[in-house]
Amino acid sequence: MRFRPLTRPVTDSLDLSLLPTTDVAARRDEVVALVEAHAGEIARELARLRGGDFGSHDFDTARGTWTVKYEGGDVQYLRYDDGANEVYVVSTHQPPDPAALAAAIDDYPALVRAYNDHVASLDGVLDGIEMDVPDVASTEAVVAERDRILTQIRDVCTEMAGQLHRAEGTDYGTFTARVSGTRWELKRERDRVSYLRVGGEGGRYLLSQYRSPAAVDVRELVTDVPAFVTAFNDHVAALQSDLEGVSG
Predict the structure, then answer these.
(1) Residue 195 CA to chain centroid, in angstroms?
(2) So what's the pLDDT on residue 23?
(3) For residue 197, what is the DSSP state?
(4) pTM above 0.70, yes or no
(5) If pLDDT is split at 50, 70 and 90, which confidence band does 171 have?
(6) Where are the domains of the chain?
(7) Do residues 119 and 45 touch, judged by C-beta distance below 8 A?
(8) Closest by CA position to 208, among listed 223, 225, 220, 192
């Protein structure tokens, strides 16, 4: 059997004209813009109600669940889930499918009612609350006593730093001793105290260039300061002993 060659394209006998999507897409974008503006009011009210710029809230309707996620008082996304399909009516990524959007918009009034019911349920929730707050106690006396003790410690340590500077002749140095099994370290710059640290790296600072210690730390550590000074005096005495008998 011989086939006759085609004299015209097969497509000539088919209707292959394409319908434009311009109108559908434009209407979808219009609906999304309207919903985004309206849901933006819900987002701002939720942010005010919850006292934060970030969050989300689920609202259940008879047909499904709406999720409003907000950031900085604006809608981050508005999602609708009817149990079978999920659609992001408002999203920062891509616009929704028109058919899915139509199904969601049909339930949008129910979302608004659920939101209004939620707000109404909070009406009067703070009624009857009375604030009888006692006066806040002042820490002035505690701070003054702490600073008085620290001034005494700093004066002693400054004298120690000066003696070390004279004896060692260096601009920087440290003196360490173990007191009650704990490492105490005095660091100096010339004849000034940089810090007095108890406990090694990660320890507590009785003296520091940056901040004052907690009052509870001062109370716990101050009783060992005399022993630290005694250890320093023993160190100086040892230096003197080393030089005895040395003739020029």
Answers:
(1) 30
(2) 76
(3) E
(4) no
(5) very high
(6) 26-119, 143-240
(7) yes
(8) 192
